[in-house]
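Whiteboard transcription, Tuesday session. T.W. wrote the structure tokens on the left side:
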């Protein structure tokens, strides 16, 4: 199993190109199941989750080809990929494939809408909470699907070959269920109105893709989305948005180590709340034509309280990284997690580096320390792993992060991007 070795203490300086967003690329790739035409996606990041989804889609009969091999399009860099689901050969998504990644469950929406049936294993993914799928099931039933859960599989069928539009009010905001219902409703008969829908930028990116494919969707990015179903969708060419979580992660790394880094291609509108919080901590954030410039010189890190919540509030996917930053703040901060009930596994690992954190229910109270000291630590989930990397960059001495396969799910060329800015960081294979 690969490890990452970091020798902390260097300020970061230079520029980091921001990759396409994992959490946008995955639903866009799944949308390729909705049409027998080719869907071309630009800026698809080279990540373990993307490769896994390619395998899952391949099992349903989706062919893919990677365009061009120009500079920065070689192995390991974001690419343009064509997906073609001309013939769906299998409407079952098996446990062996789906259990590795939560988002793979989302194939249920397009398969059901286009083929009239789907059998999809209950999902896996990061162990950050129980993560039920009740809203998906309730929402698809509202669109007139017949559903059964049998031997760990959701078995779904349309009543007479097609889903039917309806009004569905999400009892709780869910990104995944909004993606799935938006895709399913695009091919349903009649109008669907989704209320209390997720407003995340990845929802807007998927809606742009579906609209380019011929779907009739209004209101994506607000909490009411209206979808007028069409008979068929066509191919399209769509660009994956820049990764707001990768952007926020590197911004927090600079805020922690100090320095001056240009996050190339980053879009401030995708993470304004997190950027505002970083400014409160003392970082200088400057949006430019190239991206976002992040600077922190001299002055210490001010403690700031945050509470995670659905977009546009502070994202849960940046909570661990922010906690890393707060471990060296000049005072106490409170970090409250409201999305996932078990997303504090980084707390005990940060403590190995000398952080002072106590947990009280869903709130972590972080008492900043003057310095952290390097230690061996273990990655427990995707964003927790990168919080340990950030803390390791600021800690004195050597930190080894074990189980980095978690990191490879969501961070493209992390070691290369950070070492290009002066960090001492390397992967140790095996
Ligand atoms: C691949 C991807 O895009 N993953 C993101 C997506 O995950 P994901 O789409 O899984 O997260 P959701 O927005 O669905 O989850 C939000 C909350 O709703 C709950 N819930 C969800 C569905 C359901 O049927 N029943 C239910 O109770 C979840 O357990 C959680 O407590 O949004 C999360 C919240 O921004 C992010 O942390 C993940 O990085
Ligand atoms: C939790 C995440 O991913 P997933 O939903 O695939 O587990 C994440 O991207 O932070």
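and on the right, the sequence the group agreed on:
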């Amino acid at each position: 199993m690969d490890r990452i070795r970091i020798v902390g203490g260097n300020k970061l300086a230079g520029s980091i190109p921001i990759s396409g967003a994992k959490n946008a690329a995955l639903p866009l790739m799944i949308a390729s199941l909705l049409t027998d035409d080719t869907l071309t996606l630009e800026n698809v990041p080279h990540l373990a989750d993307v490769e896994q989804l390619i395998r899952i889609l391949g099992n349903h009969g989706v062919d893919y080809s990677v365009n061009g091999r120009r500079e920065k399009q070689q192995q390991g860099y974001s690419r343009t990929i064509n997906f073609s689901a001309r013939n769906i050969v299998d409407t079952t998504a098996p446990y062996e494939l789906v259990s590795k990644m939560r988002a793979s469950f989302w194939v249920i929406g397009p398969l059901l809408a286009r083929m009239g049936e789907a059998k999809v294993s209950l999902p896996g993914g990061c162990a950050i909470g129980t993560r039920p799928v009740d809203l998906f099931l309730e929402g698809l039933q509202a669109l007139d699907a017949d559903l059964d859960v049998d031997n760990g599989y959701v078995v779904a069928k349309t009543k007479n070959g097609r889903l039917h539009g309806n009004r569905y009010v999400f009892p709780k905001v869910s990104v995944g269920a909004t993606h799935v219902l938006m895709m399913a409703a695009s091919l349903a008969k009649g109008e669907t109105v989704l209320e209390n829908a997720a407003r995340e930028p990845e929802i807007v990116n998927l809606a742009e893709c579906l609209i380019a494919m011929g779907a009739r969707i209004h209101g994506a990015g607000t909490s009411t989305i209206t979808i007028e179903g069409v008979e068929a969708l066509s191919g399209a060419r769509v660009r994956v948005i820049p990764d707001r979580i990768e952007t926020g992660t590197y911004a927090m790394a600079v805020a922690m180590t100090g320095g001056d880094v240009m996050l190339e291609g980053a879009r401030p509108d995708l993470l304004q709340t997190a950027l505002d919080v970083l400014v409160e901590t003392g970082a200088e954030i400057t949006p430019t034509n190239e991206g976002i410039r992040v600077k922190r010189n001299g002055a210490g890190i001010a403690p700031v309280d945050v509470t995670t919540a659905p977009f546009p509030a502070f994202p849960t996917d940046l909570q661990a990284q922010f906690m890393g930053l707060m471990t060296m703040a000049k005072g106490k901060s409170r970090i409250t997690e409201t999305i996932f009930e078990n997303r504090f596994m980084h707390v005990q690992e940060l403590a190995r580096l000398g952080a002072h954190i106590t947990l009280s229910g869903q709130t972590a109270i972080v008492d900043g320390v003057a310095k952290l000291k390097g230690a061996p630590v273990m990655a427990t989930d995707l964003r927790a792993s990168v919080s340990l990397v950030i803390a390791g960059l600021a800690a004195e001495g050597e930190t080894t992060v074990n189980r980095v396969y978690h990191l490879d799910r969501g961070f493209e060329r992390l070691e290369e991007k950070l070492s290009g800015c002066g960090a001492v960081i390397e992967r140790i294979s095996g």
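Someone added at the bottom: The mean pLDDT is 95.
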